[in-house]
C-alpha cells in the first residue's frame, strides 16, 4: 500500500455505537454524517528532517440508488502534488456504496495508480450468504465486514463513552481478497492543534496492516473531533523512510455543530 492507499487506512481509523470493549461493532445507525458532506485533507512527509507537503485527499458522500436500494455513495480520492509527481505520481480513487440503515457496504471499487503500479478492484458484498464477489472469485467474509471506505463512515458512529484507557474495539475489513481482523485502541481525550485550528479530540491507535509504507502494529496515532460529527482531524505515523502526517483542512455540510472547535487558525 502506498501514498493514498495508506490514506484509506489512515482514515479508516477515523472514528465514533454504544458498545463494550472487546465487542465487534455491528448494526449501528448513522448519527455522525449526512449526505452531501465533504472533507479535505493534506498529507505531509518528513524525510531526513525535511518537512514537506506531499498530496491531498478528499472524501464526498451523496445519496444514490443501487439495485433498488437507497445507499450512501462515498468517494475517496487522492493525488500527489506536482513536486511528488516528479518521482512518485499518485492518482487514486476509492468508492463505496453503503446501506443507509445498517451502514454495511454493498459494493466497493478501487482504482489506483501509484508510481506506475496500477490496480482495479471491484467487490460486491452479498449480505445473505456473507460473501465478497471479486474478479478473482468468491470469498467468505464475516457478517459485519467492511471495506476501506465504508469502515471510515461506519466507525465514525462508535461512541467511546464508557471505554477505559487501552480498551480495544475489534472489527474486520476485506481488502485484496483477504479478511483482516483489526482493532482500535482507545487512548483517551486531549486538546490538539492542527493546521485548521485547536480542537477537543479523541485519541486512539489502530492496528495496521503491514504494507510498503507502513509497518504493521500500533505505531500510528489518530485524533478525531470530540463531538457528534467525529471528523478525522490529525494523523501521525512513522513510515519506512521518515514519517507522515495528515491534517483536516476543510469540511462542508456537517451533520452537527462542530462543538469541539476551540479556536480557528
Outline of the structure:
This protein is mainly beta.
Please provide a written account of the structure:
- The protein is mainly beta and 265 residues long.
- The chain has one domain.
- 8% of the residues lie in helices and 52% in strands.
- The protein contains 3 helices and 15 strands.
- It has helices at residues 3-12, 82-85, 148-155; strands spanning 38-47, 50-66, 69-80, 90-99, 105-114, 117-126, 131-134, 137-140, 168-175, 178-193, 197-206, 221-225, 232-238, 243-252, 261-264.
- The protein has a 15-stranded antiparallel sheet that branches.
Features:
3 helices, disordered N terminus, 265 residues, globular, mainly beta, 8% helix, 15-stranded antiparallel sheet
Could you give the order of the helices and strands? Answer: HEEEHEEEEEHEEEEEEE
Shape: globular
Tally of contiguous helical segments: 3
Proportion of residues in extended strands = over 45%
Radius of gyration: 17 Å
Q: For the residues shown, what is the average pLDDT? A: 84
| Class based on secondary structure composition and strand pairing | mainly beta
Uncertain regions: pLDDT < 50 for 5+ in a row? 1-24
Helix content: under 10%
**Cα distance spanning the termini:** 33 Å
**Main sheet specs:** 15 strands, antiparallel
Number of strands: 15
How many domains in all?
Answer: 1
Amino acid at each position: 500500500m502506498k501514498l493514498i492507499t495508506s490514506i484509506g487506512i489512515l482514515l479508516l481509523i477515523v472514528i465514533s455505537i454504544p458498545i463494550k470493549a472487546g465487542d465487534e461493532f455491528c448494526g449501528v445507525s448513522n448519527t455522525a454524517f449526512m449526505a452531501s458532506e465533504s472533507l479535505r485533507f493534506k498529507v505531509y512527509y518528513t524525510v531526513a528532517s525535511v518537512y514537506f507537503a506531499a498530496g491531498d485527499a478528499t472524501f464526498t458522500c451523496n445519496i444514490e440508488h443501487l439495485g433498488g436500494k437507497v445507499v450512501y455513495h462515498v468517494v475517496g480520492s487522492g493525488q500527489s502534488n506536482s513536486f511528488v509527481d516528479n518521482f512518485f505520481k499518485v492518482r487514486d480513487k476509492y468508492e463505496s456504496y453503503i446501506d443507509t440503515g445498517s451502514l454495511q457496504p454493498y459494493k466497493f471499487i478501487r482504482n489506483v495508480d501509484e508510481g506506475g503500479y496500477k490496480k482495479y478492484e471491484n467487490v460486491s458484498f452479498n449480505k445473505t450468504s456473507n460473501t465478497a464477489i471479486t474478479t478473482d472469485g468468491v470469498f467468505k467474509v464475516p457478517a459485519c465486514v467492511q471495506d476501506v471506505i465504508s469502515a471510515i463512515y461506519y466507525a465514525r458512529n462508535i461512541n467511546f463513552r464508557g471505554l477505559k484507557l487501552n480498551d480495544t474495539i475489534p472489527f474486520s475489513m476485506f481488502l485484496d481478497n483477504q479478511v483482516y481482523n483489526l482493532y482500535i485502541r482507545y487512548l483517551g481525550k486531549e486538546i490538539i492543534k492542527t493546521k485548521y485550528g485547536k480542537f477537543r479530540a479523541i485519541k486512539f491507535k489502530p492496528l495496521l496492516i503491514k504494507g510498503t509504507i507502513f509497518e504493521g502494529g500500533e505505531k500510528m496515532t489518530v485524533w478525531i473531533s470530540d463531538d457528534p460529527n467525529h471528523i478525522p482531524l490529525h494523523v501521525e505515523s512513522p513510515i519506512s523512510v521518515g514519517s507522515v502526517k495528515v491534517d483536516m483542512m476543510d469540511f462542508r455540510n456537517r451533520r452537527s455543530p462542530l462543538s469541539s472547535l476551540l479556536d480557528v487558525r
